């Protein structure tokens, strides 16, 4: 437990971390991978090379220092991190390794400013954070293991079918190679896929949203093909180019805190951009499959008809189910007129049908898309607790 003096020391480093945090985290990762190279197979090498992981960790460390007096403010963030950790197979024994290299990096980067008292304060702060995450992850691991069809770690799944959904997106239908059952999951959750990337000589995990409703004898992910050479899309392109029907790939159990609130009867507005449509398909199909009478408005934006995944499925559901309405935005004009509006998703254009009493708004897509839609909703008076968001990287990867 941190004492008052230690909290003061940690809090005082927040401005330094905001200014120099990326230098610290870059040094930290380089140091850790030099001394513990086995951990490179847990971390996303694409994000390492692009600098995204260093930036994200720097922001997280600075936020923790800033809120050290009341870390409960960060509870939603910690839940998000805990879910990501169990999908990557991070275990309690990893925390001392990370803590050792983090403290050493603080001392090596800050130099004389890193007094023994400061290092001791950060050691206590890290220990407090590790205890919180380990406890939450233990609950998540137990829940994943003890449900029907559940497991922890990695489990082999056979590719039962590959189905092209658009010019860029392909669905993979996955069944347990051991012949066992598939666990239930919450619509909106993801699974991790682990593959060997020859260019990096590493096993690499990536998260992909489950794109179908729970309750089937398979798990389905829908993956976007990326341009050749895109370091962020290495695993996605391996799935497209090298994985065929009958092959076995490793999966971690379903995880994630971006989920449909199933205990409510109020309207649902699903807003997606590009491959961010995948968790929305799980939510939409679950609502229809369970006979829900909740009003649903499905809003999607993409470049054109060629890249528009699940177009026919959504059209059919909107036709068959009176409670489902859909609106499509295309960046490019298309002769088949399968879109309703031209341009980026603009909720103000359809405010009469999407600004609904007590509705929940679920958003998924690239970060800039997400930021624009959240700002638009807030401008139109939607409270933060009714906006639920999941940012996507490339290839249908939950970020």
From TrEMBL:
UniProt domain Globin: residue ranges: 1-138
FAD-binding FR-type domain location: 152-261
Site residues, Involved in heme-bound ligand stabilization and O-O bond activation: 29
Stored InterPro entries: Cbr1-like_FAD-bd_dom, FAD-bd_FR_type, Flavoprot_Pyr_Nucl_cyt_Rdtase, FNR_nucleotide-bd, Globin, Globin-like_sf, Globin/Proto, Hmp
Family matches, as PROSITE patterns: FAD_FR, GLOBIN
Keyword tags: Detoxification, FAD, Flavoprotein, Heme, Iron, Metal-binding, NAD, NADP, Oxidoreductase, Oxygen transport, Transport
GO MF: nitric oxide dioxygenase NAD(P)H activity
Residues binding NADP(+), per UniProt: 274-279
Enzyme class: oxidoreductase
Reaction catalysed by this enzyme: 2 nitric oxide + NADPH + 2 O2 = 2 nitrate + NADP(+) + H(+); 2 nitric oxide + NADH + 2 O2 = 2 nitrate + NAD(+) + H(+)
Cofactor: heme b; FAD
Reductase: region residues: 149-399
Cofactor: how bound: Binds 1 heme b (iron(II)-protoporphyrin IX) group per subunit. Binds 1 FAD per subunit.
Domain of life: Bacteria
Classification via CDD domains: FHP_Ae-globin-like, flavohem_like_fad_nad_binding
Entry domain remark: Consists of two distinct domains; an N-terminal heme-containing oxygen-binding domain and a C-terminal reductase domain with binding sites for FAD and NAD(P)H.
Role played: Is involved in NO detoxification in an aerobic process, termed nitric oxide dioxygenase (NOD) reaction that utilizes O(2) and NAD(P)H to convert NO to nitrate, which protects the bacterium from various noxious nitrogen compounds. Therefore, plays a central role in the inducible response to nitrosative stress.
Family label: In the C-terminal section; belongs to the flavoprotein pyridine nucleotide cytochrome reductase family.
Name the record gives this protein: Flavohemoprotein
Gene source species: Iodobacter arcticus
Gene responsible for this protein: hmpA
